[in-house]
Structure formats: C-alpha cells, structure tokens
From TrEMBL:
Residues 505-514 have a biased composition (Gly residues). Residues 499-523 are annotated as: Disordered. The keyword Ligase does not apply. Residues 70-384 form the Peptide N-acetyl-beta-D-glucosaminyl asparaginase amidase A N-terminal domain. The lineage of its organism: Eukaryota, Viridiplantae, Streptophyta, Embryophyta, Tracheophyta. It holds the Pfam family PNGaseA. This is Peptide-N4-(N-acetyl-beta-glucosaminyl)asparagine amidase A. It comes from Zea mays. Residues 1-26 form the signal peptide. The keyword Signal applies.
Length: 587
C-alpha cells in the first residue's frame, strides 16, 4: 500500500546494484518494484491498436483463480442481502465505513433451517489511476475478509471475490452488530481512482441432516482486534521485531474447543519481505501468537503479492494468488483451554519475527461450547516451544555480485485435556515449520533471483476435530534487464509462485467425532508469469507480459475442480475449466 511517489526513477534503478556489499547503497525498496501512474499510462499508450487497446475505453474484468463455491446438494437458496454499498475516495486515515447489521429475515426466523453455505461477495469497480489498496471487512469486530484492490485502467476495471464465510455462522446469526469496512484509499491530482464496492451476503440452507461436529462452525466467534471507533482498519499494526500487539479476551466457561484464526498482511518496508537483505532483517518473517506471553503457535505466511507488486502488468487480468482474498491461518488452542476456562481475561498477542514497518495482524477466536453443561475443565499436559532455529549466510564474490541464503525452522507442540459432557478428551497440536530462501545477484548487479520455499505442517490429533494441514509455498522471482545506462533498456521480471496444500480431517483416533472417516483434499495452485518493459531515454515505449496458471483441486469426498488458464497482455489466451472430475485440462 504505497503512498504516491515518483516511482519512475526507481523503476530504472530497481536492479538494486551492490545489494550485498554495500548496505547504504540502493536496496530493493518497495517503490523500486512498483510502477507510477505515468509508467502505466505509457504502457497503455504503447499497446497495439487492435485487441487490448480497443478495450482500454471499456471496463476490463480482473480475476483471481479459485474454485467456485457450491452449496451441498439439496440446499435451498440463495437468500441474498446487500450489506453495504460505498464509494471509497479519500479514505486513508479516516474511520472505517460502517453499517448496522442484523441477521436477514431468512436467517433470523425461529424456524430458519441451518445454514449449509454462507458466501460473502465483494464486487468493486474503479476507473483512472490508483495504487493497490488493502481492505478489510469486520462484523462485530471479527474480520471476515481481507484483500487487495485491483489497480484500475483508464477505461475502468471490475472484479469480484466470493469467500466462504460459513465458519462465521454464529456471528451472522447473532443479534445486531456493526459491519465495518476499511479501504485506505488516497486521491490526488494523479491518483484519481475511486473504488466503488458492494458487499453482499448469500445464504444457502440445508434441510434435515445436521453436519458432523467436526465440520460444524463454532458456537461463538470472539474478535481479537482493535475496537471502533478508530481511524484505520481494526487490525493491529506491528511495527518492528519487538512490537507485541495484543487484546484481552475471556472465554465462556463451557468451551470444549478453541481455534484462533489469524489474518496477516505485510506492508511498507516489509511488503516484499522475501526480498529483504540482511540489513533489512533478512528475508524470513513469521507471525507468532502469544497466550499470556507464551508462544502457542506460529504463522509462516504465504507471500501474497499485491496487484501492484514486482511489476503490476503481470497481475492483469489474472491477479496473484491470494491477493483478492488473502488466506488465513488456524492455530488450535484447545490444549490451552485449561487456563482459559477460569473465567478471567487472558492476553492474546501477536509479534512478527524480524519485522520492519508494517504488518497488519488480527484474529478471530472460534469457540465450541458444551450445550449440556455450564462448566468444562481442562489441563495442559505438555508444552514444548523451543526457540526459532535459523541462519543467514552471505557470500560475496566481488563487491557487486554475490549470494545469501537464509534458513529457518520451528517446532511447537502442546497437549492438553478437556473434560466436558462429551467425555475427557486429550488434544495435541503440533507445528513443524521450515523455510529456505536464496537471493543471488549476478551479472555485475544486473540480475537478481530469489528462490524461496515455506513448508508448514500443522497437525491436530485426538480431540474433537483431528486434522492435518500440510502447506508448501514455493516462490521464485527474477529481476533482470539489459542496456542499463544506455538510451535503450529492457527490464525483465519473472515470477513463479505456488500454493500447495493437503488437508485431512477426521481419523486420528480416540475421542474424535470424525474418527469414523477421514476426508482428504489436495490443492495445487501455480502461477508462472513474466513481463518485459522497453524503455527509450527513460520513457516506457513498450511492454509485454504473460501469465499461465493451473489450479488442481481434488477431494476424497468427490469434490474436484481443475482450471488451466493463460493470458497474454490483457487478453485471455485460453481458459479450460473442469468440475466434472474427468481429470484432463488440455482440451
Ligand atoms: C452496486 O450496486 C448498485 C445497486 O444495485 C449498482 O448500481 C452498482 O453498479 C453496483 N456496483 C458494483 C461495483 O457492482
Ligand atoms: C436490532 O435492531 C433493530 C432495529 O434497530 C431492533 O428493532 C431490534 O430489536 C434489535 N434486535 C436486537 C436483538 O437487539
Ligand atoms: C517498536 O514499535 C513500538 C510500537 O510502535 C515502539 O513503541 C517501539 O519504540 C519500537 N521499537 C524500536 C526498537 O523501534
Ligand atoms: C522439528 O521436529 C522434526 C521432526 O520431529 C525434527 O526433525 C527437527 O529437527 C525439529 N526442528 C527443530 C528446529 O527443532
Ligand atoms: C482427564 O484426563 C487427564 C489425563 O488423561 C487427567 O489428568 C485429568 O484429571 C482428567 N480430568 C478429569 C476431570 O477427569
Ligand atoms: C528453487 O529451488 C528449488 C530447491 O532448491 C529447486 O528445486 C528449484 O528448481 C529452484 N527454482 C528455480 C526456478 O530455480
Ligand atoms: C493447459 O492447456 C494447454 C493448452 O490447451 C495445454 O497445452 C497444457 O498441457 C494444459 N496444461 C495442463 C496442466 O493440463
């Protein structure tokens, strides 16, 4: 989320010469990885007259590839309600836009059937010039959606994102609450794009059969965020490595399961944290979750690249993974219920290892309550959270070219029992996290390559909802070019990024209600993209870019979705979709 600045110069200098050898020399500043409105205007003007350029006078649709949300078979609906419609002009440092929320009539009636799927749809338009902005949506202080906006074109862009918000069913059905949306936009003579957005809730209902306890949404969702009124988002802003932001929460005394869902996004000096040099605290970041001061879980974030990042053309019209709908991360707190059930307030805090300004972090505490008793009890049996292990090794061949490599790993394990009307059940939460990053500068500083992998295994065994999530986030970025210092230059960018995930639910043994069956789903979501910009006498005279994305999802319960889509410039070259599970994308 940059402020307006003259990015044009830095566009030319963005190869960050002497990156390794000279800490005071140019560093890969976020500005250097962005385009100014002038650059974009020059690119639009240089597009061929046919095809893409013709459409520059009409709206372009940008999209993030995701699987469509379908209600379970036999559901009724949707029952759709417009929650908010607003034009975000100069909103930076202003209070969030709010609207009174009360459950729609289809949900609030005493005979309303259970919700089988709840979808929050954000649809927005923008025209002119504008940077990507981060926005958040909160209901009763609990964050429901965080995203980056699309950067507009002169003729306008439109995009929409649909998020499954079924897990917030308790909030949606609860009494009156305030809906808040913060989108910190800035308008001036150059950046004139106003974001017009509609937020709609779509509800589907099921008849009869109740879902299994493991799959069911929490009975209560407690926000861990900042409270209104304020002039910003409700997220906490973590500013540096020692900054801990926290809130005090109390837990109903009959809870038997607790899961903390964490929202994170990186900004300013840490927007491209994975490219940071040792002088910028290196390329490793993690968000740690602290309960009364002790680390109880860690989030090793997926590197979301906003629509203006690295080279904004790359993300048009297919945006980067997670940019319109950022991923969230679950930390199982059930083993710690023993201390949380005392009826007192406890402190939930967030820190970011190696942080520079700024990280936006908040969370929702999902709680499942024992309907048959007013008191549950618990105890922590084992807890092991050794310090983060890691290193950064630098090698510099000659003063300019060189390499550094960073690694990190962390394990966290906690076991605790909870006794409720469901029995005395022991839950173990375990995280095994590892990270590696190399940053190689070559060609006398003319090229830089970042290759990173984050690997996160999170397992919940025993307990009310055994599950295992294995995530792997490969990231490769190449910045290069030729003709530096001459009147004719070429700037090259390449990005390869993946969000790979295997989730299994159920199984895992005694006490788990899902023990009878295990369902597994696998997602492989990959993008390969490149852009080339030609400059003559420092002015953009041409640009080309392409993107190829494959999205492969399969689940043991029969769900599947395959998509194979490719674009060149603003044009979609091919777009194969298959939800029939036939398993071929090539046609
Ligand atoms: C928002 O809703 C209004 C009223 O239905 C409609 O006129 C407008 O075009 C919508 N805007 C977007 C971005 O969908
Ligand atoms: C919610 O607000 C409406 C309108 O202000 C009011 O009529 C209703 O009684 C409120 N409901 C609850 C549960 O507070
Ligand atoms: C870190 O950030 C906090 C909160 O903004 C601030 O109070 C503190 O002085 C900062 N520490 C350093 C070392 O900059
Ligand atoms: C984490 O646990 C794994 C498997 O038990 C082990 O191989 C690894 O060395 C541990 N890492 C750290 C940093 O403790
Ligand atoms: C539950 O089981 C644990 C050990 O498995 C035991 O230490 C604890 O006392 C039991 N709690 C109750 C209330 O029975
Ligand atoms: C990145 O590193 C991984 C593991 O070392 C390697 O397999 C992969 O080929 C590298 N990617 C690129 C694009 O160089
Ligand atoms: C995607 O489609 C293209 C063009 O039809 C095809 O060549 C390619 O093999 C497909 N990729 C996958 C992973 O199916």
């Amino acid at each position: 989320m940059p402020t307006a600045s003259s990015a044009h110069r830095s566009l030319l200098l963005c190869l960050c010469l002497a990156l390794l050898s000279n800490p005071v020399a140019a560093s890969p500043s976020p500005r250097g990885l962005r385009f100014s409105a002038k650059d974009i205007a020059a690119v639009e003007a240089a597009l061929p007259r046919h095809g893409s350029r013709a459409s520059s006078s009409s709206k372009t649709t940008f999209f993030e590839v995701d699987r469509p949300l379908r209600p379970p078979r036999g559901s009724s609906g949707p029952c759709s309600t417009l929650l908010l419609s607003h034009s975000f002009a100069f909103t930076l440092t202003k209070p969030p836009v709010t609207a009174a929320y009360s459950p729609p009539p289809c949900l609030s009636g005493s005979d309303a059937p259970p919700v089988s799927l709840a979808v929050l749809e954000w649809r927005a338009e923008c025209r002119g010039a504008q940077y990507d902005r981060t926005f958040g949506v909160w209901l009763g202080g609990a964050e429901l959606l965080r995203g980056s906006t699309a950067e507009p074109r002169p003729g306008g862009v439109v995009w929409s994102v649909s998020k499954d918000v079924t897990r917030y069913a308790a909030l949606l059905a609860a009494g009156n609450a305030t809906l808040a949306v913060y989108l910190g936009n800035l308008i001036d003579d150059t950046y004139d794009g106003v974001y017009h957005a509609n937020l709609t809730l779509h509800l589907y209902f099921r008849r009869g059969v109740r879902p299994s306890a493991a799959a069911a949404a929490a009975d209560a969702v407690v926000p861990v965020s900042r409270s209104l009124p304020l002039n910003d988002g409700l997220w906490f802003v973590v500013q540096n490595d020692t900054d801990v932001q926290s809130a005090r929460v109390s837990v109903p005394r009959n809870a038997y399961r607790a899961v903390l869902e964490v929202y994170v996004s990186s900004h300013d000096a840490d927007e491209f944290w994975y490219m940071n040099t040792p002088e910028q605290n290196g390329p490793f970041r993690e968000v740690t979750v602290l309960l009364d001061g002790a680390v109880v879980g860690a989030v090793w974030p997926f590197p979301v690249i906003y629509t203006g990042g690295i080279n904004p053309l790359i993300w048009r019209p297919i945006t980067s993974i997670g940019s319109f709908n950022m991923p969230t991360y679950d930390i199982e707190l059930t083993p710690f219920l023993g201390s949380l059930l005392d009826g007192e307030e406890h402190e939930l805090g967030f820190a970011v290892t190696n942080a520079q300004r700024s990280w936006y972090v908040d969370a929702n505490l999902h709680l499942w309550l024992d309907p048959k008793s007013s008191r549950t009890s618990g105890g922590l049996v084992a807890y092991h959270a050794p310090k983060l292990a890691g290193s950064i090794v630098s090698r510099s061949a000659d003063g300019v070219d060189g390499e550094y490599a960073a690694t990190a790993s962390r394990n966290i394990t906690a076991t605790g029992w909870v006794s409720s009307s469901r029995g005395n059940v022991t839950t173990t939460f375990a995280q095994r996290l590892s990270f590696s990053n190399t940053n190689v500068v070559s060609g006398q500083g003319s090229a830089q390559a970042i290759n990173q992998t984050t690997d996160a295994l999170t397992a919940v065994s025993g307990g009310p909802a055994p599950a295992q999530v294995h995530q792997s986030f490969p990231l490769y970025i190449f910045l290069g070019g030729d003709g530096s210092g001459t009147s004719s230059q070429r700037l090259m960018r390449r990005v390869e990024i993946g969000f790979d995930e295997t989730r299994s639910r159920g199984g895992g043994g005694a006490g788990g209600e899902g023990a009878a069956s295990t369902t597994t789903s696998t997602l492989r979501n990959s993008q390969v993209a490149a852009a080339e910009v030609t400059l003559r006498d420092d002015a953009v005279v041409g640009a080309s870019w392409r993107m190829h994305q494959t999205y492969e999802y399969g689940a043991s319960d029969g769900g599947c979705y395959l998509r194979n889509v490719s674009s060149v410039g603003y044009d979609v070259l091919f777009d194969h979709r298959d939800a029939s599970c036939a398993g071929t994308l090539g046609r």
